[in-house]
Amino acid sequence: MNISIDKMLNKVGSKYKLVYVIAKRAHQMDETKHFQMKEKEYKSKKNLNRALEEIAADLIHIN
After folding, report:
1. How many angstroms separate the CA atoms of 3 and 15, rounded?
2. Which domain holds residue 12?
3. 11 contacts: CB under 8 Å, gap ≥ 6
4. Is residue 28 part of a domain?
5. Cβ-based neighbours of 44, under 8 Å, separated by 6 or more
6. Quick check: is 62 in a domain?
7. Around Cβ 23, how many Cβ atoms within 10 Å?
8. Domain count for the chain
9. pLDDT given at position 1
10. In this predicted model, what pLDDT tens digit does every residue of 35-58 receive, in sequence order?
């Protein structure tokens, strides 16, 4: 997985908010087993990285 932190910060605005959202989304994935993309579309097997992939794919919008 090769996602640029600069691109992520353009979407989120704050590295602290980015960390918070990724952690919260990963926790949701662990609890509910609900994913925004099909399992095959994820490059990573870990939910933390999958959350990052969802943000990069504009599936999670942060205000």
Report:
1. 14
2. 5-56
3. 55, 56, 58, 62
4. yes
5. 1, 50, 53
6. no
7. 13
8. 1
9. 62
10. 999 989 999 999 999 999 999 898
Does the residue 44 lie in any domain?
A: yes
Contact in structure between 7 and 56 (CB atoms under 8 Å): yes
Residues counted in the chain = 63
3-class DSSP assignment, residue 56: helix
Instruction: Judge whether 63 lies within some domain.
Output: no
pTM of the model: 0.83
Rounded to 5°, the CA angle 11-13-21 comes to 75
Structure tokens at 49: 């990285």
Question: Which contacts (CB < 8 Å, 24+ apart) does range 38-43 have?
Answer: 43/1
